[in-house]
Amino acid sequence: MKRITALLGLLVTLSTTAAPFDYGLKPVEVAENTWFIEGRTEDFSFENGGNIVNTAFIATGEGVLVLDTGVSRRYGEALRAAIKAVTDEPIRMVINTHQHPDHFLGNQAFKDVPIAALSETREQIRISGDGFAENMYRLVGDWMRGTEVVVPFETIELGIQVMGAHRLEWIRMGGHSGADLVLFDHTTGVLFPFDMVFYQRALTTPHTPGLKQWRDEIAQLRRLPFKLMLPGHGPMVTDHRALDQMDAYLQWLDQTLTIAAEQGMSMNEVMQLPIPDEFDSIALREIELQRSVFHLYPAYEEAAFAR
Question: Which of 44, 67, 139, 281 has the smallest CB count inside 10 Å?
């Protein structure tokens, strides 16, 4: 009997492992002709297939505008199927908002339509895309099967553009990755800051040119008259709470690294510093603090030594 029970357990395990890879994407219409797909506030893993990113799309009346394509070919294909399930409009354009892999590795599913990005982003993906993809294979395994880098081949035009019934404003920022697109839809009042804003999930810092620049650009976002904000990671909001959280965390991180460097603390010591209680609701705050110290602390030490 024990052998039969063990065999049944093995069969269940094997059937679960062999189950189709399904992201289960469910677009939510959050404004007129505007859909949002929210990812998990987690780190990359085989269990989530890398589905930690928010994506979105707008049915403009003259075709669908796709805002980021996700982490893998499978995600891109699932996204394209999800779009088809809610609108008959053809896909007109795909946008890659910045260089990080969870935002462009689904491009394969859309390579028959224009894929656009900032010129800097196109170059960053051309140079680093294969390395990003290899790392994602290590992190999420077979979810990445068949994924190859498709570099965006058009350059987005900044400023106001009219697409169908939507008056769209493309804004260049750089606090998160060095070249970050922000989209404000004047027609619906929806702001898409993408990874310029993380909410309830700790921000990542591997390519930031500086926390002060990031804070300055958060202040710029405050001045936009949005009705709804769809951050790059975390839930949507209808007010400034995500911007408040971002600014408070960036300020604390900058001050903490500055003071630690002035006191001559080691990198390991800084990684063990307590995180204020006000950030308790932010997922992955401990691990992302450690990563941010690794990314940023040497520059703070250099600045302290130079004074």
Answer: 281
Looking at residue 147, its pLDDT comes to 97
Q: What is the pLDDT of residues 27-80, one digit of tens each?
A: 999 999 999 999 999 999 999 999 999 999 999 999 999 999 999 999 999 999
Spell 165-203 as b/e; 16+ CB within 10 A means b: ebebebbebbbbbbbbbbbbbebbebbbbbbbbbbbbbb
5 lies in some domain: no
Question: Would you state the structure tokens that stand for residue 109, as one six-digit string?
Answer: 């599913």
- Work out the average pLDDT over 142-162: 97
Q: What is the CATH number of the domain that holds 138?
A: 3.60.15.10
pLDDT beyond 70 at 127 = yes
Q: At what angle do helices 285-306 and 241-262 cross, to 10 degrees?
A: 50
Q: Which amino acid is at 108?
A: Q
Q: What is the C-alpha separation between 198 and 239, in angstroms, rounded?
A: 14
Nearest to 127 by CA among 149, 145, 144, 110: 149
Six-digit token string for 23: 């992201």
Which secondary structure element, helix H or strand E, spans residue 287, and what is its range?
Answer: helix 285-306
SS3 (DSSP) at 117: strand
- Report the alpha-carbon distance of residue 279 to residue 281 in Å, rounded: 5
What domain range is 45 assigned to? 22-239
Phi-psi sector, 163: left (phi>0), alpha (psi -120 to 50), beta: beta
- Residue 155 inside a domain? The answer is yes
Residues 6+ apart with CB under 8 A from 268: none
pTM of the model: 0.92
Contact 187, 165 (CB under 8 A): yes
Whole-number pLDDT of residue 10:
38
Q: How many domains does the chain have?
A: 1
What six digits make up the tokens of 278? Answer: 């006000």
Does residue 293 have a pLDDT over 90?
Answer: yes
